[in-house]
Amino acid sequence: GATIGILGGGQLGRMLSVAAARLGFKSAIFEPGGDCPASHVANYHHQAEYDDEDALKRFAESVDVITYEFENIPTSALDIVEAIAPVRPGRRALKVSQDRLTEKAFLADLGLAVAPFAAVDDAVDLAEAMAEIGTPSILKTRRFGYDGKGQARLSSPDDAENALADMNGAPAILEGFVDFDFEVSVIAARGLSGDFASFPPGENIHTDGILDTTTIPARLSTQAVAEAQGMAARILQKLDYVGVMGVELFVTPMGLVVNEIAPRVHNSGHWTQNGCAIDQFEQHIRAVAGWPLGDGTHYANVVMTNLIGDAVERVPYLAQDSANAIHLYGKSEVKPGRKMGHVNRITGPA
Ligand code: ATP
Ligand code: MG
Ligand code: MG
């Protein structure tokens, strides 16, 4: 059988490996860390650093197709593996989404609504951006931010100096604060032959910058659901995308505003494991392996709750309720803010 190569060995890589196994594939992960979530379930673990050319070559030569669980793969590593095996989703999606500035510009070019934004490299840029965008606003590092890290909120111009200091000299982007009613995300997929499928949008609640819950269905009209899915379709089409993508949206009285895109399976899509026949992980494996896609139909309404840090201690209690499907990532060490697992609570038929 074919082998799926996965760059990254966290919980997303773990759940992709499980899905690959269910479809009869083997999986090989490339991950510098040893005792990582995906290493417990993948068939092969290439344990090496991303600057280890020989290890990258051996990895790529051992697989039929390569995918990834995070978007910050070094360009040099991609150059090496891409010369040996196809990388799906492709470079375009990575290039666009690795940098918040190129990401926002790409989305705006597509005609999608985004928060007002401006590049900020220094105090002069920030002063100009503030004059244009004003407050409230958010300064974010252009690269490597996740779970709300690398962000500083500005409620008045007086906050500028501290916010810039928080960036530690990294290139940043100032975004106008979107006064949203709530947040949703669309998990969508595009196949090798250009077919498209989307799960229904989920409604997301973040606590301390980290996704806390995703609820299906979201409080959206049929028309807004179609609009959100149509926006995702345009993004995937434009990127000639192959695989699953997470598209985060703000719901405002003026319509849907795109926050960011993630070129991979997404935490806000974990509910599909228990709400759909074909979940986001199987959908992604199908896409990168060139299979037809599942259609995104959901059969159950679900509330997904992340088990962050010592919330994982609630598992014995949560497991007593048969409506709770428990998913744990096999992480031995509990740390504050660390995603240890999630619970999908079935709330009724779709
Ligand atoms: P993720 O873990 O989803 O990748 P991230 O660190 O990349 O998160 P964002 O998604 O950009 O960060 O921001 C985190 C959260 O902060 C958003 O989900 C939203 O609640 C809030 N936020 C970000 N940008 C804005 C904005 N321009 N206006 C209002 N709220 C915002
Ligand atoms: Mg992000
Ligand atoms: Mg986000």
TrEMBL record:
GO CC annotations, alphabetized: cytosol
Keyword Nucleotide-binding among record annotations: yes
GO biological process: 'de novo' IMP biosynthetic process
Keywords noted in UniProt: ATP-binding, Ligase, Nucleotide-binding, Purine biosynthesis
PROSITE patterns: ATP_GRASP
One Pfam family per UniProt: RS_preATP-grasp-like
Catalytic activity as recorded in UniProt: 5-amino-1-(5-phospho-beta-D-ribosyl)imidazole + hydrogencarbonate + ATP = 5-carboxyamino-1-(5-phospho-D-ribosyl)imidazole + ADP + phosphate + 2 H(+)
SUPFAM superfamilies found in the cross-reference section: Glutathione synthetase ATP-binding domain-like (SSF56059), PreATP-grasp domain (SSF52440), Rudiment single hybrid motif (SSF51246)
UniProt enzyme class: ligase
Keyword field contains Ligase: yes
Any one GO molecular function term: ATP binding
Domain of life: Bacteria
Pathway involvement of the protein, from the record: Purine metabolism; IMP biosynthesis via de novo pathway; 5-amino-1-(5-phospho-D-ribosyl)imidazole-4-carboxylate from 5-amino-1-(5-phospho-D-ribosyl)imidazole (N5-CAIR route): step 1/2
Residues binding ATP: 100, 140, 145-151, 175-178, 183, 206, 259-260
NCBIfam families linked: PRK06019.1-1, PRK06019.1-2, PRK06019.1-5, purK
The protein's role, per its UniProt record: Catalyzes the ATP-dependent conversion of 5-aminoimidazole ribonucleotide (AIR) and HCO(3)- to N5-carboxyaminoimidazole ribonucleotide (N5-CAIR). Catalyzes the ATP-dependent conversion of 5-aminoimidazole ribonucleotide (AIR) and HCO(3)(-) to N5-carboxyaminoimidazole ribonucleotide (N5-CAIR).
Complex and partners: Homodimer.
Family the entry assigns: Belongs to the PurK/PurT family.
Protein name (record): N5-carboxyaminoimidazole ribonucleotide synthase
Source lineage: Bacteria, Pseudomonadati, Pseudomonadota, Alphaproteobacteria, Rhodobacterales
